[in-house]
Write a structure and sequence with these properties.
Residues 1-164 form the Macro domain. This is Appr-1-p processing protein. The protein has a single domain (6-163), classed as Leucine Aminopeptidase, subunit E, domain 1 (3-Layer(aba) Sandwich), CATH 3.40.220.10. The protein starts with 11 loop residues before the first strand and ends with a strand. 29% of the residues lie in helices and 23% in strands. The longest helix has 18 residues, at 106-123. It has helices at 43-50, 53-63, 106-123, 141-151; strands at 12-15, 27-34, 75-81, 84-92, 126-129, 159-163. By secondary structure, the chain is α/β, with parallel strands linked by helices. It is built from 4 helices and 6 strands. Helix 3 (106-123) packs parallel to helix 4 (141-151). Helix 4 (141-151) links the parallel strand 5 (126-129) and strand 6 (159-163).
Length: 164
């Protein structure tokens, strides 16, 4: 897989499992969490089957939210292996579709992806993810993809999106 930079850069799409990222070097798995402290449906279950640390860290982060930055747009980086990180991005309000629409919050995902880019550049990491915000959060890929292109690809961070 050739790295692309600048104007030719694009998201790489692969069939596969985002919890088993492809390629060499440091990798960061990015996914979207809710702002309620709930962890129990969707992609997080696949993460928890592989590593207990991201769930434990997220639940602690939420529990201690009065004393930290937990909230929409915040990101928690959890090391799960020497060259592998998980980024818990708080990008959805609640967990259910209701009178205020679907849970996804695009502005929170955009803010979180900016923080992911900073950390990925610091670590020299590539970013790997499912179609974030588009499962249980109810988002549309046509709205998320440009955020990834702008916030990550535009800053020179290689991104692979996995379709299971």
């Amino acid at each position: 897989m050739a790295e692309k930079t600048g104007i030719d850069a694009a998201i790489t799409y692969l069939k596969g499992d985002a919890t088993a990222p492809q390629g060499k070097g440091v990798k960061m798995i990015v996914h979207v969490c809710n702002d309620l402290g709930g962890w129990g449906k969707g992609f997080v279950l696949a993460l928890s089957r592989r590593w207990p640390e991201p769930e434990r860290a997220y639940r602690r982060w939420h529990r201690e939210r009065a004393r930290n930055d937990f909230g929409l747009g915040a990101v928690q980086f959890v090391s799960v292996d020497e060259h592998l990180w998980v980024a818990n991005v708080v990008g959805q309000r609640g967990t259910r579709t209701g009178s205020k629409g679907v849970p996804v919050r695009y502005e929170a995902i955009a803010a979180g992806l900016g923080r992911v880019a900073d950390k990925a550049l610091e670590l020299g990491a590539s970013v790997h993810m499912p179609r974030i915000g588009c499962g249980l959060a109810g988002g549309k890929w046509s709205r998320v993809e440009p955020l990834i292109t702008q916030r990550l690809i535009g800053r020179g961070v290689a991104v692979t999106v996995y379709d299971h």
